[in-house]
């Protein structure tokens, strides 16, 4: 059995790296969507949404870095170009969106996509006794579920 530098099986780590790279690609598109919305939101809820989108993109930026560093910790290369992100992401770029409510709906949809990927990654990591990835995914899931709840309340 071959292991990587942190003692996990290389074959199992490859599966996790693939899942983490898919998550990374989606995280990057989500991040850019948030930047777009932060820059372009208008209307009576401008101040509230402008600040919320900034908060969320700062959290997403930290998440991108953590996921990429986890991939490196597992001994692999994180995706690092927008071409790779677009090819590997389920989340689509939000281009010209002008309605603030639609922006919030898209953020909620993006978060739900990330949650699906994080749950899949958590399941795989748990099966491979990868506590580091499991812990990271568990924290992400808890935080995103709360944001989805809050955005759902906002949209009612």
Provide structural commentary.
This protein is mostly helical and 156 residues long. The protein has 5 helices and no strands. The chain has helices at residues 10-40, 46-73, 82-88, 100-127, 131-155. The model has no long low-confidence stretch (mean pLDDT 97).
Radius of gyration, in Å, reads 16 Å
Question: For the terminal residues, how far apart are their CA atoms?
Answer: 53 Å
- What's the story with the biggest beta sheet? none
**Silhouette:** elongated
Estimate the strand proportion. under 5%
Q: What order do the SSEs take from the amino end to the carboxyl end, as H and E?
A: HHHHH
Structural class: mainly alpha
Report helical residue fraction.
Answer: over 70%
Query: Which stretches are poorly predicted, pLDDT < 50 over at least 5 residues?
Result: none
Number of strands: 0
Number of separate helices: 5
Look at the structure and give the mean pLDDT.
97
Question: Mind sketching the topology for me?
Answer:
Elements: H1 10-40, H2 46-73, H3 82-88, H4 100-127, H5 131-155
Please tag this protein with its features:
0% strand; 5 helices; single chain; 156 residues; mainly alpha
Give a quick summary of the entry.
The chain is mainly α. The chain has helices at residues 10-40, 46-73, 82-88, 100-127, 131-155. The protein is built from 5 helices and no strands.
